[in-house]
Design a protein that fits this description.
The complex is a heterodimer of chains A (212) and B (222). Chain A is an all-alpha fold and 212 residues long. Chain A contains nine helices and no strands. Chain A is globular, with a radius of gyration of 20 Å. Chain B is an all-alpha fold and 222 residues long. Chain B has one domain: Orthogonal Bundle (MetI-like fold). Chain B is built from eight helices and no strands. In chain B, helix 1 packs across helix 4 and helix 6 runs antiparallel to helix 8. Chain B is elongated. Classes of the chains: A mainly alpha (212), B mainly alpha (222). Chains A and B meet through helix 3, helix 7, helix 8 and helix 9 of A and helix 2, helix 3 and helix 8 of B.
């Protein structure tokens, strides 16, 4: 069977849905988990702060590919079946939570101390200070690096092809094996990734300019 | 966690792990040196008087920064043989890493160049230096001092991303891990040890880059 260019593009676009879905799920999951890590990381109690510090250092200091392998082969150890989709979601979520927590921590530290004091003087307790005063400002000033990380995350999904998740790159490998047109196939993959990431990158640039 | 971890294989695997780590370090150092030089040239190109040069550099930076490293590597690795050019996987890996690193390097060096106040440049020109001399002797050293930490971070990020080159059979750290776990049937333990080695490497590399940068780049007339 012969593949026309349209066959190649159509199959890649269908596979790209999984790339997009994985990116969104991991970003949302990573955001929720990252918020928990952030709260631990900025806590005044050492026994909460330290583990969060190590967690962030561990995920930022090791290759994502190995993190995916560890999740993949770690699942059976906690009594679950090996599963590429679960591995991809879990691996990227854990990694995203560490990076997002660190980005937001930078935002927390950039806020003047007076913001906390003002909250306290209004009679708000710690969690209310965070929710009503600190976090809204943190998310606002870290929007550019947060979206910037989303770009990294979208690109990272390509690594999940190695543990067998059927996303864009894995589909491309299969098509390339059938067509022997590597420049066309991987060129199209690159263009699809570019089409997803470039608008986000432009948005980041616009945010940075607005702030400057 | 069900089951105990088994590290009995580690003694026999140390030599292979060492070789793999050496290859990973070699790839990164070669790419960092070449990529560093290219980044400076690229950042200068992005500020060129000639519009086509500026557009070319901008297109390169955006294209590389908005596509995954592993896709770029596959494009080169599987693409080149289809036009009759077969390269050693290690060479392909170094080329791919350098191409990727340079795109980020251009942005970082560029930010440093923009951070140097224009008065510095004007002072250089007023002293009778030509604009190329001003760039090399006045602007660039000051820019490098500002951006060196960011450049170091990017080199470390790239070292971690280089784990993907195991997929084109470059015999680096992750590839050796793949072989070891295939032999021992202990994938979790193997990848855990190797992940920790990457962690140690990234900590050591960061220290070396920052202290080395301080000594060689900004020693003397700082």
């Amino acid at each position: 069977m012969d593949f026309t260019l349209w066959d190649i593009v159509r199959n890649l676009l269908l596979a790209a849905r999984w790339t997009v879905l994985l990116s969104i799920v991991a970003f949302i999951g990573g955001g929720i988990a990252g918020l928990g890590i952030l709260l631990m990381r900025i806590d005044s109690r050492k026994w909460l702060r330290r583990p969060a510090e190590y967690y962030i250092g561990l995920f930022q200091g090791t290759p994502l590919l190995l993190q995916l392998f560890l999740v993949f082969f770690g699942l059976p150890r906690i009594g679950l079946r090996i599963d590429p989709w679960l591995t991809a979601v879990l691996g990227l979520t854990l990694c995203a939570s560490a990076f997002l927590a660190e980005i937001w921590r930078g935002g927390v530290e950039a806020l003047p101390r007076g913001q906390w004091d003002a909250g306290a003087s209004l009679g708000l307790h710690y969690l209310k200070q965070l929710r009503l005063i600190i976090l809204p400002q943190v998310f606002s000033i870290t929007r550019a690096p947060t979206v910037g990380f989303l770009v990294q995350l979208v690109k990272s999904t390509a690594l999940t092809s190695i543990i067998g998740f059927e996303e864009l790159l894995r589909t491309a490998n299969a098509i390339n094996n059938a067509t022997f047109q590597p420049f066309v196939v991987y060129g199209c993959v690159a263009l699809i990734f570019f089409a997803i990431c470039f608008p986000l990158t432009r948005y980041v640039k616009a945010l940075e300019k607005r702030k400057a | 966690m069900g089951g105990n971890l088994d590290f009995g294989w580690l003694g026999d695997a140390l030599a292979a792990i060492g070789r793999g780590a050496a290859t990973t370090i070699l790839m990164i150092l070669v790419s960092a040196v070449i990529g560093g030089v290219l980044s400076v040239l690229g950042a200068a190109g992005a500020r060129s008087r000639h519009a086509p040069v500026r557009y070319l550099v901008a297109a390169y930076v955006e294209l590389i920064r908005n596509t995954p490293f592993i896709v770029q590597m596959f494009f080169i690795f599987f693409g080149l043989p289809s036009v009759g050019l077969v390269l050693n996987p290690l060479v392909v890996a170094i080329v791919a890493i350098t191409i990727n690193l340079t795109a980020y390097g251009i942005e970082i060096v560029g930010a440093g160049l923009d951070a140097v106040s224009s008065g510095q440049k004007e002072a250089g020109l007023a002293l009778g230096l030509r604009s190329r001399q001003v760039f090399i002797k006045v602007t660039l050293p000051q820019a490098l001092r500002v951006i060196f930490p960011a450049l170091s971070s990017q080199i470390i990020i790239m070292m971690l991303e280089s784990a993907a080159v195991s997929q084109i059979a470059v015999k680096e750290l992750t590839y050796e891990a793949d072989l070891i776990q295939a032999r021992t049937f202990l994938p979790f333990e193997t990848y855990l040890v190797v992940a920790l080695i990457y962690l140690v490497l990234s900590i050591i590399l960061r220290r070396l880059l920052l202290s080395g940068g301080k000594r060689f780049l900004f020693g003397g007339a700082a």
